[in-house]
Structure formats: structure tokens, C-alpha cells
From TrEMBL:
Keywords: ATP-binding, Coiled coil, Magnesium, Metal-binding, Nucleotide-binding. GO terms for molecular function: ATP binding; ATP hydrolysis activity; GTP binding; metal ion binding. Signal peptide: none annotated. Its cofactor is Mg(2+). Residues 3-207 form the OBG-type G domain. The keyword DNA damage does not apply. This is Redox-regulated ATPase YchF. Pfam families: MMR_HSR1, YchF-GTPase_C. Residues 130-164 form a coiled coil. InterPro entries: ATPase_YchF/OLA1, Beta-grasp_dom_sf, G_OBG, GTP-bd, P-loop_NTPase, TGS, TGS-like, TGS-like_dom_sf. Gene3D superfamilies: 3.10.20.30, P-loop containing nucleotide triphosphate hydrolases, TGS-like domain.
Length: 344
């Protein structure tokens, strides 16, 4: 199981350029049996210094990083929600992603057509946002007409649901994204199955090296994607020697963060040191389920140690002998960077 980030934006902004840069260093896909592979889906390693340090202590035969998927989604045009361009396909692709990275054009280039005719990050973001919101509005209206039938039966639960959907619809109608609406956990889980597009975490990336900062929207990242393709061709050592900052690493980690993910590690009795991805707040048995479908059911207990304590111990054996390994049950909440040995 892996998480996926959809690369979204208007045509000719650099989405495929970003995809190319991200997937330049090929990953050995065989190690990730749950990964879906399509031409527009790329599997990218999460850069992780902790994994390397753990491996220095464990000295395994094999070191396997965790991954995230990026999906190069076709360019969106105005009217996509009504099926313009590849509209419906485009929006279905976003629906399947866990988060969105929106590439916004900031670079000037007379040889590359700009769909709206001018460089204007705010306006471009607005166009995309309107399409996402219009689609969500459609989903909300369909949901509401179903709920209204339930309300006729005067069921309390249905009334509450209608209240929630009316609130969300009112918010979206004001042109605001669902991700910014304050909702409690119960409300969030009520909305979850609808996979609202504007409820997904979103990161804006301005593709430029010169344009001014965007004021209205929080553009979190700014880089020149064409340069990044070249940088991605260098090995880590070459980049270090040339003093080149790996901007893409920053981008990958930012995606990881907006998804609210943590990393945990397994050492497989010393054979393989491996990083895995878990939703924050996941339990020991959830973590087991990430490693192997059977592990969730057959989970008995696990030995857990923080990665730094393991490094300080010098070896798994030392950690055990000095009482640093904690034995935990299914419900134990896993912390970021925990190293886990499962007992099934
Ligand atoms: N000048 C310039 N051109 C770029 C940059 N990034 C992408 N391009 C070019 O813009 C064109 C469209 O890029 P592409 O990634 O295919 O855009 P997409 O339609 O969003 O997937 C290509 O010819 C790219 O080489 C950039 O930072 N500067
Ligand atoms: Mg493209």
C-alpha cells in the first residue's frame, strides 16, 4: 500500500517535466507488490537519512526505502467539471489521489504557449480551484438529494447529515475549499466516502526562478523544474560535489508531510532494514498490516525502539540486553521513526 500525489495544473505549466524529474532515478518496483503501475504513475523513494543510519548499525544485506506515488494528470482546462477537454477523466484521476500538488506557471517563454495568454499565478490557481469546487458542488447536490429522501422519514441521523451537507455546500458555494472548513472527526468521516476534490491536502508549486512570490495563495514551493530534470540526472555524490541543493527531495518530503504520514522501520532479524509509511496515529497492528496483510490479524506483540535509542545502543542485541526494547500490544500507537520487530 502506498500513498499517491496527483500532479495537477493547467496545460504547459511543467507537470510532465516535474514527473520526469521525480521519476528519473528508477526504483526497483519488485520490492513493492502493492504498487499500481501505469505509464503516468511514478514510484519515488522517500529520501531518508535515518534509514541509512539505522542500516549502519544493523548491517543488513538489503536496505529498502519507503515510497510515494506521483501521478501525472492531464492538463485541466476551464469547464473541466462539465467534461471539457479530458475533464471527467481528469477529475476521476484526482479523486483517486490522496493529495494534490498543483504546478503553477511562473516562467516566461515565448516558445511555450500559455493557455490564458499571460503569466498570472493567482488567476491560474483560481481557474483550477473553480473546477475542483464545481465538481464538489455537483457531488454535494447529488448527495443532498439522496439525503433529503431520508429526511422525509424524520430520522435524526439523516437530519444531522443534511445539516452537515448544507454547511459544506454553503462553504463551497462561497468559493472556498473544503480542506479549509473546520470539521470534527465525526463530520470528516461522514464526508470521507465522497472523496471531495477540494478536501484533499494541496501544495502549490510555482515553476520559475524569477517570478515574485504569490501573495493571495500560499505558494509553498518555488523551483525551476527544467533545471531540476538536469539535477535529477546527477548521482547524490555528484550533486553534493557541485554543491547543488536537491529541491526535489524537499518537494517529496513536503508531500509526505501534508499527507500526515509517519515512517517506521523494520529490521527483519538483521536481514533487511526497511522503511514503511503509516498514517499518523496508527497502532502497532496497523503497522503490521502495512508490512503484510496477514500481520494485522496474526499480530501478537511487537518490540519497539526509537531509532535514536537503537543507534546509541549500537546493535539490536545491545538494545535488548540493556532493556531498551519495549514490548507492546496491538493498540500501542506508533511514533514517527520507531523501529519495530513484529511477533506473529
Ligand atoms: N522555459 C522553461 N520552459 C519550461 C520549464 N518547465 C517546463 N518547460 C517547458 O514547457 C513545455 C511544457 O512542459 P510540460 O512539462 O510538458 O507541461 P505540462 O503540460 O504541464 O505537462 C515543455 O516544452 C517544457 O520543456 C521552465 O521552467 N522553463
Ligand atoms: Mg503533461
Amino acid at each position: 500500500m502506498s500513498f499517491s500525489v496527483g500532479i495537477v495544473g493547467l496545460p504547459n505549466v511543467g507537470k510532465s517535466t516535474l514527473f520526469k524529474a521525480l521519476t528519473r532515478q528508477p526504483v526497483d518496483i519488485a520490492a513493492y507488490p502493492f504498487t499500481t503501475i501505469h505509464p503516468n504513475v511514478g514510484v519515488v523513494q522517500i529520501p531518508d537519512e535515518r534509514l541509512e543510519k539505522i542500516a549502519q548499525v544493523i548491517k543488513p544485506e538489503k536496505v529498502t526505502p519507503t515510497i510515494i506515488e506521483f501521478v501525472d494528470i492531464a492538463g485541466l482546462v476551464k469547464g473541466a467539471h462539465k467534461g471539457e477537454g479530458l475533464g471527467n477523466q481528469f477529475l476521476a484521476n484526482i479523486r483517486n489521489c490522496d493529495a494534490i500538488i498543483e504546478v503553477v506557471r511562473g516562467f516566461e517563454d515565448p516558445n511555450v504557449e500559455h493557455v490564458t495568454g499571460e503569466i498570472n499565478p493567482e488567476k491560474d490557481i483560481e481557474i483550477v480551484q473553480v473546477e475542483l469546487l464545481m465538481k464538489d458542488l455537483e457531488t454535494l447536490e447529488n448527495a443532498l438529494s439522496k439525503i433529503e429522501k431520508e429526511v422525509k422519514s424524520k430520522e435524526k441521523k439523516a437530519l444531522k447529515k443534511k445539516e452537515l451537507f448544507d454547511k459544506v455546500k454553503d462553504w463551497v458555494s462561497q468559493g472556498k475549499i473544503i480542506a479549509e472548513l473546520e470539521l470534527n472527526d465525526e463530520e470528516k468521516s461522514e464526508l470521507k466516502e465522497f472523496q471531495f476534490l477540494s478536501a484533499k491536502p494541496i501544495l502549490y508549486l510555482l515553476n520559475t526562478d524569477t517570478a515574485p512570490e504569490s501573495k493571495k495563495y500560499s505558494i509553498q514551493l518555488k523551483m525551476n523544474l527544467r533545471d531540476e530534470v538536469e539535477v535529477s540526472e546527477l548521482s547524490a555524490e555528484e550533486a553534493k560535489e557541485l554543491g547543488i541543493q536537491p529541491h526535489l527531495d524537499q518537494l517529496i518530503l513536503a508531500c509526505y508531510n501534508i499527507l500526515d504520514l509517519i515512517t517506521f522501520y523494520t529490521v527483519a532479524g538483521g536481514k533487511e532494514t526497511r522503511a514503511w509509511t503509516l498514517k499518523k496515529g496508527g497502532s502497532a497492528s496497523d503497522a503490521g498490516g502495512v508490512v503484510h496483510t496477514d500481520f494485522k490479524e496474526k499480530f501478537i506483540r511487537a518490540e519497539v525502539i526509537g531509532w535514536q535509542k537503537l543507534i546509541e545502543s549500537g546493535s539490536w542485541k545491545n538494545a535488548r540486553e540493556t532493556g531498551q526494547l519495549k514490548t507492546v500490544g496491538r493498540e500501542h500507537i506508533i511514533e514517527d521513526s520507531d523501529v519495530i520487530e513484529f511477533r506473529i
